[in-house]
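Q: Please design a sequence for this.
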């Protein structure tokens, strides 16, 4: 359980989806909270839609909506999907950037997913797992795998394992987002996009200010697939400004 020892929960929504898929064999011994979660999960229209559309998890619809509204993915782009398990965001990215080359008339993109959890293969995507995206040794491998050593888009649906202390969980997630943003000078191409999950809280404005210093635009988005009662929001930053202090490739 390496991710728990490190204090992170890679691909958090992926873990929930995996929990759902195995729920039928563990009906006995569930807690009341688990019963409530499963009941809500089974009634969730996005869960049903994910099954119909063959997405690995309902979280696919969060990225789909963000892309529909803000056009962050297009054929030919290189995408780094952090905390990719079980692969639903990578599925969307493969489709939108034409990573599988299914559209013969469009540029072919590239999708690299990284997670501490195992990810089942997906046509059009390359998965680096188990791997810690914040590990300098993994960063070097990421640059080796990305065409040209750079990504045009960095995606993250990661979250820390919840402690139940809202302020602490918020701070830990912002710390994770900050760690991913620290990768930008080494990985993100000038003009690139950064999208990460966070929880609304006291540190959000400070982190968004940091985004505005490095990107032309930064905003908060909350897709419809993100439950209303959840404090989950996404920070979207576009047009990365690669500062003079960063060495040229």
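A: Design:
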């Amino acid at each position: 359980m390496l991710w728990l020892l490190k204090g992170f929960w890679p691909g958090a929504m992926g873990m929930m989806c995996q929990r759902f898929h195995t729920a039928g064999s563990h009906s006995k011994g569930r807690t009341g909270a688990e019963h409530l979660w499963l009941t809500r999960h089974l009634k969730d229209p996005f869960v049903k839609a994910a099954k119909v559309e063959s997405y690995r998890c309902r979280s696919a619809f969060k990225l789909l909506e963000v892309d529909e509204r803000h056009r962050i993915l297009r054929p030919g782009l290189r995408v780094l999907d952090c905390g990719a398990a079980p692969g639903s965001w990578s599925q969307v990215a493969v489709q939108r950037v034409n990573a599988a080359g299914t559209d013969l008339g469009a540029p072919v993109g590239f999708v690299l997913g990284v997670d501490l959890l195992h990810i089942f293969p997906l046509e059009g995507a390359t998965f680096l797992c188990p791997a810690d995206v914040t590990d300098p040794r993994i960063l070097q491998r990421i640059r080796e795998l990305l065409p040209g050593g750079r990504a045009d888009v960095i995606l993250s649906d990661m979250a820390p394992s919840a402690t139940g202390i809202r302020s602490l969980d918020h701070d830990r997630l912002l710390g994770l987002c900050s760690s991913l943003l620290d990768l930008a000078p080494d990985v993100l191409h000038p003009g690139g996009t950064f999208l990460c999950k966070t929880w609304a809280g006291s540190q959000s404005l400070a982190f968004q200010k940091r985004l505005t210093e490095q990107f032309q635009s930064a905003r908060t988005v909350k897709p419809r697939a993100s439950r209303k009662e959840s404090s989950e929001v996404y920070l979207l930053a576009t047009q990365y400004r690669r500062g003079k202090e960063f060495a040229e490739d």
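Q: Thanks. Anything notable?
A: The radius of gyration is 18 Å. DSSP finds ten helices and seven strands in the chain.
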